[in-house]
Design brief:
Number of strands: 0
Order of helices and strands: HHHHHHHHHHHHHH
Largest sheet: none
CATH topology of the largest domain: Endonuclease III, domain 1
Radius of gyration: 18 Å
CATH class of the largest domain: Mainly Alpha
CATH architecture of the largest domain: Orthogonal Bundle
Shape: globular
Number of helices: 14
CATH superfamily of the largest domain: Hypothetical protein, domain 2
Helix content: 55-70%
Structural class: mainly alpha
Oligomer: single chain
Strand content: under 5%
């Protein structure tokens, strides 16, 4: 693992401070954060995180609310529900057929392996918990890191916004994959800030650092951005 320089770390901290001052984090903008504040049940947070895959947080929350009303979001309820009923409830989140089968499979595994209590996974050391979570359906590195981060574990989740922003800012190589991006960000920032990084980078990606036609002229960190310097 390459060791990042002190200068790179100082630039990263400056970027973080500016983003914190310009982009307030609202729980309602992030499905996993909103649900975690409503309920300290990791199963519920995992469900909404899966629903948010390949769709907006707004759509994920709508699907979550409907699923709660029609089926009930517990491992027991989802494990015994008809796939069609789950699918119809989460249609707004997209990929509803795939997600409905995955959610029922997930619920059955959580009942079978953990008696419906996912907190048993989260009590394990970080790396062990990451491995166990990724054995569950529709749970890859990003989804695992979202759940672990919400529960205060020292990790950083990397979605498409975080990846784009990190690469454009020059915080990680342009061809870096998930593991490398996560590793670089965890080296650059203090552990106490890990939970903020995905939220701030997602907010920045949505407001300024858009995939198409980024708003470089009004970007609050343009003077520290390698992409803006080349534009």
């Amino acid at each position: 693992m390459a060791i990042l320089s002190a200068a790179e770390k100082r630039r990263a901290i400056k970027i973080l401070k500016i983003l914190q001052s310009k982009l307030p984090i609202r729980a309602s903008d992030f499905a996993s954060i909103l649900v975690s504040k409503e309920s300290r049940d990791p199963f519920r947070v995992l469900v909404v995180t899966i629903l948010s895959q390949s769709c907006t947080d707004i759509a994920a929350i709508k699907a979550y609310r409907t699923l709660e009303k029609r089926v009930g979001i517990t491992a027991g309820n989802l494990a015994h529900a008809e796939v069609r009923k789950i699918s119809d409830s989460i249609r707004v989140a997209g990929l509803h057929r795939q997600k409905s089968r995955a959610l029922r499979h997930l619920a059955r595994l959580v009942l079978q392996e953990y008696a419906g209590d996912m907190s048993k996974i989260l009590q394990k050391p970080l790396n062990e918990a990451r491995i166990d979570l990724q054995k569950l359906p529709k749970v890859g590195p990003k989804t695992a890191d979202v759940l672990l981060s919400v529960w205060g574990k020292a990790t950083i989740s990397v979605d498409t916004h975080v990846e784009r922003v990190s690469k454009r800012l020059g915080l990680t190589p342009s061809k870096a994959k998930y593991a490398k991006i996560r590793s670089d960000l965890m080296q650059l920032f203090d552990v106490g800030d890990y939970g903020k990084i995905p939220l701030l980078f997602m907010a920045h990606g949505r407001r300024y650092c858009k995939a198409i036609r980024p708003l470089c002229s009004t970007c609050p960190v343009k003077r520290l951005c390698l992409y803006s310097a080349k534009a």
